[in-house]
Specification:
- The chain has helices at about 10-25, 40-45; strands spanning about 1-5, 30-40, 50-55, 60.
- It is flat and about 30 Å long.
- Strands 1, 2, 3 and 4 form a four-stranded parallel beta sheet that branches.
- The protein has two helices and four strands; from the N terminus they run βαβαββ.
- With about 70 residues, the chain is an alpha/beta fold.
Length: about 70
């Protein structure tokens, strides 16, 4: 069980955690439990898990995208 309480954070840090969770999923099942806030990077991290559960009051945001031209 991975507890997530995050307003987001840097895209690079979120991507690094996401990639590690994908590797870990090859060995173990991962359930994301979103608590108070799981916005942007927090939600992105949760998407790497096998299952996502959230409290009824969890503030969940979208996964942001940054594009450089």
């Amino acid at each position: 069980v991975l507890l997530i309480n995050s307003p987001g954070g840097s895209a690079a840090a979120s991507a690094a955690i996401y990639e590690e969770l994908i590797r870990l999923r090859q060995k173990k099942k991962i359930v994301a439990c979103m608590t108070d806030t799981a916005a942007s990077g927090g939600y992105y991290i949760a998407s790497a898990c096998d299952k996502i559960v959230a409290q009824g009051s969890t503030l969940t945001g979208s996964i942001g995208v940054i594009s450089a031209g």
